[in-house]
Amino acid sequence: MPNKAVQKKTIQMAVFGMDSKSLKTLDFAMEKMGKGLATFVGESESEAAIFNFDNPDVPSRLDEYHHSYPENGIIILSVKNPERSDCVFLKKPFDMNALLGSIRQMQKLKLQSIGRKNSQHMSKVGVSSVALEKKSKNKLAPITPVVDFQAEKNKDRKYCGMAGDIDLTDIESRSEIYYQPEESLQSKLQDATLLAKQKSRVVIVAIKFENDLETITLLPRINKVIMALDGKKLSYLCTVPLYCLEIKVFLQNVEKSRELEDLATKRQGNESVDALLWNIALWTSRGRIPAGTNLNTSISLKHWPNFTRLHVTPGVFSIAALLHDKPMSLTLLIKILSIPQRYVFAFYSAAQALDLIEMDDSNMLAEKRLINQAHPHRRLFGLIMQKIKRVG
Questions:
Q1: Is the dihedral of CA 382, 386, 391, 392 positive or negative?
Q2: Considering the entire predicted model, what is its pTM?
């Protein structure tokens, strides 16, 4: 019998060249019409991508993406057909069902690819037919899945933690939702980034833990990072207390800074400074918020985050849509969305690390009346449908 988990595999897609309005449309359509067909993730985690080809910056990004991920499917949205045989083209204005149909086709091809890899895996095992017959005439040898679905299911635990919801009115319970950024690697990297921005020069952060020495080179002028550290090791270092780490910060001179910037510009695959700080905050907070955060202070987003380069945690587009529309507190946000508190807290901590959060105390009184009136879904869906007419 086919593996149901494989049959229903959600395809992970990156999105390039779309404004916040279009991103919210796609997220809403995928949730309501696509029924889990696809989720939007960062470039490095994607299995396919959607490119708004009418954005002048996109054609070069597409070539770079195709070079880095040659096996990933690509959908181009444009007024004019770019005549690319390696991509699926949808002419604007397009019907959302046509986009969903294209994504379903990519999902089908992905499943076929998984099936082929499974078959290749079985052929390499080299189990003799005689041995199989002795074991059971009616049973097939188990197929080892190419995709670790349990790992996929648990992936966001590393970013959002596993904590359950608590009573936010209980002072003693509230202590569980806070963490101390200044006692972790996060604070050092944020300080180093601020220094690099203020001086318009490159900063190298050397991190020594036990017998290992790692370096992270921050180039905020071009929003790039050079490092050999992989995500697994870096996420682990985020859980290590600061007093266990030996950290030194080296500010480069102007000449060396420009040399390193030229090198980073020529290299492909470098992570952005924003993506690094975003991930560092997620790995450190794990679904908590910085100590001292007032749950009842109204907050808003200064501008829409560039989610095409950031790790997308559960509920991120809905959270951002509300905070981008109107200031509100974390308490009200959780009430309206009815999602696990850790998802809201994870977003807040990551957004604050990028200086995207703006405090607004003026709305606190009006908000108290809304908390008891807020429907879990009505306001969010009304907001999105009122603002968004079509993708493009």
A1: negative
A2: 0.59
